[in-house]
Fold DNA-directed DNA polymerase.
Amino acid sequence: MPNQQNHEDDPIRISCYNAARQRYGDDVPEAVISRLEEELQHIVRNGFSDPYIVAARIVDKANADGFTMAIRGSVGSSIVAYLLGITEVNPLPPHYQCLECRHVEWAADAVDSGFDLPSELCAKCGGKFVGDGHRIPYQTFFGADGNTSPNIDLYTAWEYEEHANNELNYQMHNSIWRSGIPVPDIIPHNAASVLKRVHTLTGIDPRSIPMNDPKALSLFRSTDAIGVTPDQIKSKVATYGIPEMGIGPVRDMLQMTQPSSFSELVQISGLSHGVGTWDGNARERIQEGAGTLRTSIACRDQLMMDLMKFGVDMETAYSITVSKRKDLPIAESVEAMLESKVPAWYMESYRKVRYLFPKSHAVSYVISAVRYAFYKLHFPMEFYAAYFSVHGIDVDMELCTRGERDIRNSPEEVRPEGYHTLQGMAPEKALQEMALELALEMNARGMRIRKSSHAGGRYVVESELYGTLEIPFIARQQSHRVI
């Protein structure tokens, strides 16, 4: 076992090893111990334990209260954060884990996400195997020397924001906080609110949803699974209402690349959030048949891992990745890549990139997107009810009660290209277009929205007749929510 630097009794170390044994069995695999020790030595040495411990307590309290939390920030690439339950993103290489005997089998290098592994039974005990792991190095956020302070943003439902902040304040009151170490941020988000409501309506916990459901994944490349045609909903993919995946440009990416796996959706997320990554770069290579989603430079962590595969040493690969993240001059980077014989096509693509999205963020976003897709496919009325419960307050729902023809011919007509992000568009305009897209889709699926006599409150009320949503009409309010 690696040197633990006489910190065996540190609370964060004890918690992590307890969690590791619970997840991987008493005989924790060496690959898990090695990664855990690397991170713990940096965290404990630099006095960074408190943000992890406080965040873990906040997430534990939220889970106990029936709310899930998503994470954005540097610790999304941390095995410590994963074992403490702060993040659902496991940064280890893809692997199988038996839910019965805890036996672990590591996947081949060609596998990019453990969520892509097919359902199997454990060869050791016959128990159920589950896949996990996304191959994310900690250096891209912690720094090559591990001295970068952790950054923890916790996304929660709007209705839980006050409770989460109260818990944060309570935890901070009972901690001795070192100066200069960032405090976890609580950020309310519509996606968390929608998932909470659909969880309540269906009884299906978002955390129990499989990430490799073929039918749910098919929504990202076709409309077949929801029983409509592209002409009916003016889209060739069924991602209306799914965070990050419903906007026009991303639907174009999905249509062209036809992703069929979780890892390919992570590439889509990275490419769509990057700058200089898709148009004029990956898009053209894929169209020409010269590249694929998998070979495209989509995330900053992938850049570092690719360079190391090409023979660049870790410190240089990290330095090149940091230079690209900060959009610094690339002359030295190119020289180092030439010396390591990085392929010419890769260097050309690298030169065009101006910003790369963190892979841990992309994985977190796709986890949420797949959950939306699962509910939308298997529990459509509950999904639409939850969606409009959260978003309906911000739009003119009158338009959404009209039939398919009226929605198509309204002044706010749903356009085939869809809305194109909030940049250059008023938030209320984007919200209205999203609502109309969902209303059009509902009609195409044989479902309706109608006015209700229900008074008070802003929530969508499900009718006794399954297939119709009743909406309490109230005065529209301006909202500044993240959508």
User: Anything to note?
Assistant: The mean pLDDT is 87.
